[in-house]
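User: I'll paste a sequence; please echo it back and then give the predicted structure.

Assistant: Echoing your sequence first, then the prediction.
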Amino acid sequence: MGSKDKPDFIAGKIAKNDGEEIQVRASSFKGFRNAHIRLHVTRKDGVDLDEPAPTPTHKGVTLRLDQLPALIQHLETLCEAEGIELPATAKAVTS
């Protein structure tokens, strides 16, 4: 299975507040693999669901997977500048 044939998956979720979460996921589109960092909201529109699935919004960003190392580097720089300590596992992965 080539990298373009890989299934979509959610790499992680970050709770923003009640009813909103940020999802980090990978997907394929027109033969290319992309990373998405997007706000998802849980709809409360009267649909009879025990646990409604979060719905993606337009708030977020889509990047090619080959752009992720640059994004990670910029996020590390931002954390350093703001005095935010990264977990050792995050540093090991990007070093």
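The beta strands are 9-17, 20-29, 32-42, 54-64. The domain at 3-94 is CATH 2.30.31.10 (Transcriptional Co-activator pc4; Chain A).
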